[in-house]
Amino acid sequence: MMSFDISSHYQKAVIENVRFWQRRIFDDKMAIDQWRPQHEAVWQAVEAGLSYAAAQAEAAAFAVALLPTIERWGVWPDWLLLIDKALALTLTPNLQIRLRLTQGQLYLFNRNFNDAISLLETALVQAGQYQNQELITLAHYYLTNAYLGDKAYAKARDHAAKALDLLTPNQLEIQAALYNSLGLIERETGKFAASEAWFQQALALWEALDKPTQLARSCLNLSVVYQEQRRWARAKACYEQANVALDSTDSVVDKLKALNELGTLQYMTDDLPAAVKTFRQGVVAASQLQGMYHLRGSLTHNLGNALLAMGHWIEARGFLEKSIKLWQQANDALERANSIGTLAELFEAQEEWALAAFTYGQALELLGSYPDHPWAQKLNAQFEAAQARCAVLAG
Amino acid sequence: MNPVTDLSLTQLRKDVHAAFKHWHTVDAKTDHLLADLLLVQNKRHELEPQTPAARRLSTNQVLLDGLEQLEKQKPQAAALLKRRFHDQQTIRGVSQRLSLSEDQVKHKQREALAQISTILYALEMEARDAYKVRLESQLEAKSYTQLFGISNLSDRLLALLITDASPWVITLVGIGGIGKTSLANYTVRRAIHSLYYEEVIWLKIIHSAKYSHPLAGPEQTFQQLITQLSRRLLPALPNHTPYTQKLQQLQQLLKNQRYLIVVDNLELKEDTAYLLSELVTLAMPSQFLLTSRLPPADHAGSMTIRLPELSEADSIGLMRHYAGEIGFLQAANAPEEDLLPIFEVVGGNPFALKQLVNLAKVRPLPTLLASLRERPLQTGEAIYQHILKETWRTLSNDAKAVLTIMPLAADGGMDPEQILALSGLTQAQLWPAIDELNGRSLLEVRSSNIWERFYGIHRLTELFIHSLLNNDEL
Fold it and tell me: Which residues of A, range 312-371, sit inside 8 Å of B by Cβ?
């Protein structure tokens, strides 16, 4: 029997493992999700690759290419440490910058905006030093969303404008995504007409690019703009368009977001029993998802709010208390303030004046961190008046 | 937890009636909350924090689920219960609305409560079955078909586990391959059937040098444990949550509910007192079951159970059973005196006994035993390494090609397509190689459903491969 060179065989296997998973994941993009149960094996392949000099660059590049898949699978916490390991290696500047951008996005998925911004700003500077147009554009694009998440709207707009300036004609997906982000920025700052215009541009591009999931997201975003303006027919049309687009996809999270919008529409048009049923469906389905605190917080709050409107106080209270905890995990103090304020409304409805006044106070304390935010200003006025009212009744 | 393991439909009817009567009650009392039902406890998990309102809501949601089912079967019965308890209509009010006498309403109410109790009873039994299946699926796949010499030990361990008293941390100690993991696996399955635990978590500590954060001491071990535990028990916790906050939240969880945390393959080094004191702080009523090759220091609230080697009789029983499994019928039917020499050389260590029976299928046993006798080895693990070296020499190159790449498998194992790609074998070569390794008990099957096959290797085999890769002498 010929002798067996174990070391050489193992090293080849390490390199082949990275390539094997690249083939599996990217050769048939329609069937990516079938590998989700083996995401640990993918992680393992990259980790082993990063430990061998001959495989490091390939493993690091694979990790960068995996970003959309990692987001889709919701497994980003495990990858933060691995990207850290890759960043400590001696790799080409191009790969280093891409890794930093990837890490920044992973922090963004985790709603850790501070770390995301820090990494992405560093990547932007590095990309500038190497005059890499593609990476500079990508950095601006990611920073748009990071600052949007952090509610630093002026900076978000600024980066979006710079990204749009640098885009090449073949970067239509990023262009559409930026239009969507600008739509969100204008929506959150109360500029509904501008927001509508941006979303319409995003929709046109998504349709041309045949991207149903992204189209549905922009539809739902636009639906909220119409709801804010009480343009119910248009809001409903947007919702229906999103639903049609999502039918052909496997995106559980987007379908739940659509359900959330439907429930909101039903609530705003006073169809409370339908709204409760819709939100309940959403809360149950979302409870199966790992993480996704923001979506779960939204569904849970909306259910509690709808139950409160129907006078079902016990149920409402349970869901509102749960949503407060979810907002904390989602790192969204503004939404948490809203849920606390809604809980205060419940206490007020139950004529628990002292408790209501105290709870309004808790909400107002959180709102103090957002003096310039239009929604925060509106909630502030509402809760201040309510607190004063309850304080008088409490005696 | 515990749900009442013997659930009586008669008692459930009374409890369900009480729960309905208190539909709108939010207070600190618990006797009208159906708290013994697994259905209610599952709902509570979804609705943390556990305020009185959340607890009441959990019970009401279970009742609503029951009403939904009742509505499909007997819509009028469901409607009656909703009117009476959800809408708080009096008997008189309902009788007037339905043009029935009050006695008739009471009678129909009793019937409806009996019907919904039957529904909830069936749902509860389904939930309990699902609980057992779910918890068992979180354990490692069984690596044994039959265990020898451990039934008394398992009974002792089970009694310690399903008791709300110290010890809170139990460590199974013994040399590698003695059966610690198998004993833990077998006994925990028995504990699951008692419905004692809220949740069972099986963690494996990674020791391989290939990982970026190798264990450096008990503090790092504990931190790794906390990180793994928080990922499993607090999946909604953001990744950027500081370590101390994770620890605090875990402590709250483990103190409020009864979890069994199994930590397999823990290599306890010096200053184990630190590790044990931290685990005992987290425990009560939750418990920790550890497996380790090294014994920990004594600590209040903890206990060590040492796994002895198998007796001569159990060793021979194991060898015969195993020989039958691998088709080595000569050994399976051999008289005791033919098998005794194996026991005399390697002792009652299951892993070593199996490996030697395996080797004896392809090589003359007297030569093997002679080589082991010539080099007296101090520790059990040195014996394994020697046996594995001998085994390695007898493997075909194709089998070596497969075994070499197995350390690259994730915890869940490697599927055949991946083995094919990494081993560099052809399809025609692959299955004979896998069969050869399976036949030599060098591959473990780690699949979670009947049709899938994922393969892995024992920790000792992995250590052996790494020693070869590190250019140890062969």
Answer: 314-315, 317-319, 321-322, 325-326, 329-331
